[in-house]
């Protein structure tokens, strides 16, 4: 098992001398640590005789990473070691970001790797609760390590035979879990949920107006899109990118729980029609970013059906619940969607990034995006070129994001993903219960969480007696940012906050990290109290 | 150094029993191979007491990857072991792509990793010459391994402090190499060159017509874009995505060497204006995909200046030459561009993916794309929020693609990248020289290569006496695909082919793989001859 000691050297005569010299160097300090200060990247593979050095170097890097992964899972470690941008820019304890003209030796490279991890944020730490993506899945990491060693591109079967088929299997599986029958369904993995949502609009537009591809928006009527006030900003952003204009995205009201109000959707559609616009697309959200709310999908599907509009479900965050028998009913009606965004890199804990857009109607993605470049998508290849999926994409080269998900699915099974999701939602319920019991906290909404989001204010003693009103709001608005600042300085915990509508800054806790336990939730509340009680 | 033998166990009392059981299992076969058949992913971190098993599992995976990396660099290995899609779908020697309900044990997971690599394509092999991205840089792989262990997202400084600053340093360095002064320049790393090119059009459109963001293309005149007939299809694809319409992309003629003809550009611009269109954007290519041609940037810049048009340079492929003192003059005039696409994952050998869009005018990216989501981009944070670069992006979550490039730059220095580029271009010249000498090959164009692309036909004996004309063309058109098919079956080599304009299928050899030596080039020609001499 010890690569530094073993002698699998494939040295050409040219490389042999250097090889022996370096072998001596890497052995110098016995088994504990190799001396990389006289070795440079040019000595590694593909250099002649570079195999032993390559093994020794990557082994040492893996030692660093294994230590990091272990430490990240320990509660005694800090979540982050905060420094301001100017401190990092100027260099800290010899860690310099400057790019040199001359090469550094591999000892320095390893030091740089250690420093990079040291000054970073431990997103796998049990108390990293800052983002919808958190945790560090070991099988997922293994998948990524293999992905980078395989270093290939998703445009053709020719260069990615196994990964192209894995993508097909994963898409089919996800489509069947969404509830689509076997004879429909297409899709592609994308660089993130915003791009997946962008695809849904792009494809919907092409479905109704295929001439847009050639002639552009100038040839179309003024199209209207609909999404809820709690939905992700990617719908507006995509409308801007696609040349449709943000002002043509109509924002539908939500109830106090953050769910789109169907009657408001329908009256918005009717009003837009009266103004001469053509409503064509509704984005329903399954798991909103802040509240974790699920829009009423069946009611929205009915409205889309009545008005012949494309129904998209942004289940980037909520899609993971489909893996759980206990929670999947929250997405009832998703099978009626024409497209679905689902990010396994969120609730399913797959390393970043891994996001899928599923499209019900086959052929649309290809028709919408194909340009048929001869140099890449030759039709006279010796295999079935339907597997050259690259021309479905708005990208040319496309990173391979599927293997890690495939490997995790093998390692956990559908049931393992389900248990993981259940655990995160149990954490949310536990936090919700604790918050109800405590007098120093207030819930942003009183309902039991449907997803793993829990939103709350910490009320410091100085604010507890105040009457509701502008003065209290202004003071409360400053509490979360100040606690967050102290939290970052201390590095004990990381959780997000934001205002929303008329509600001043509140904390949003989200659970997607399988490392998080009830003891961390107790710590969260105690720590916020400790950091904020003098405010 | 032996993780399986060492005992750094952090077990809670709950995990201890399982821990001891599994420790026995991983030790069962002594030092050589652990027994993972009774271990499951749930036994790994963050499970209590999962540290030893995590180390043992990742160590075994690394063994597999190190063997793969070593083998990929050996000429005696095959480049690929081809199977048809239906063979892989049905399962080969127990390798099944099906996704189970119940978890597989870690022994099976490791077998799956081995099989995935076995049936894949070795893109780091010295004889993989199929793509503009090839080779396997060990430092780059180390960078990717760290990236996946760090598993974070590029939207805010809060969660990616080090990587956000590395991106800033890299962008500034690349801008200075392009030739921009220190007081201009912005940019962002993107998921591939097509998306980088899409950004250039998006930002150019916003620069001239900021109202497009709100109002859409319907509020704008009919805009015209210009790109050469040899340029990448991403300009047309982006025009379709952005709602501008492919028919408004005007294709400018090239000379026999594949360079845009400036007078044809200018007359196209004038003609479009006469038809009532508004020309606003020119894409010049520095390193075309097939020929590797460099458009005359200064002449194009003059035309853009005269017509007040945005000049973009697609240097996705050619940008690497800027690292070489010997070759950078081929991009003279690039400093006059308003935006530049540059993919370090191509000529600089960085693992996929790593692509930058550089924008000369600061503030445009932010203005064009910002949506100011409160939950992510709070303005009341305890640090300089100008470092929260995520709102510049058309993505929300963004994969971290910069660390591997930063680490390679440290390890090679600017000069090391320069030598690597020089070596690839020397290979191209060597191939060009060999082709000139051989009677069984014909060059597609006679000029010495400017980049590392070399385009040629193999002429089998049966075609050598034929007169130029349709009959010969039709037969020659079938030669490259048939040789390619045999090459894939045999697995000895991988090189691309395509037709272009009136030219029938020809081979395009590209060198970006630092593993490739002259002996591989000799092998390439001999092997093509062997595979094709009976055609």
TrEMBL record, chains A, B:
Q: How does it assemble?
A: Homodimer.
Q: Which InterPro entries match?
A: PyrdxlP-dep_de-COase (IPR002129), PyrdxlP-dep_Trfase (IPR015424), PyrdxlP-dep_Trfase_major (IPR015421), Pyridoxal-P_BS (IPR021115)
Q: Which domain of life is it from?
A: Eukaryota
Q: Which PANTHER family match?
A: GLUTAMATE DECARBOXYLASE 1-LIKE (PTHR45677:SF14), GLUTAMATE DECARBOXYLASE-RELATED (PTHR45677)
Official protein name in the record = Glutamate decarboxylase 1
Cross-referenced SUPFAM superfamilies: PLP-dependent transferases
Question: Among the entry's GO cellular component annotations, what is one?
Answer: presynaptic active zone
Which organism is this entry from? Eleginops maclovinus
Q: Which cofactor does it need?
A: pyridoxal 5'-phosphate
- TM region positions: none
Query: Entry's Pfam families?
Result: Pyridoxal_deC (PF00282)
**Which PROSITE patterns does the UniProt entry name for this protein?**
DDC_GAD_HDC_YDC (PS00392)
Instruction: State the similarity comment.
Output: Belongs to the group II decarboxylase family.
Q: Which residues carry this modification: N6-(pyridoxal phosphate)lysine?
A: 346
| Keywords assigned | Decarboxylase, Lyase, Pyridoxal phosphate
Report the record's Gene Ontology biological process terms. Answer: gamma-aminobutyric acid biosynthetic process
- Any one GO MF annotation of this record: glutamate decarboxylase activity
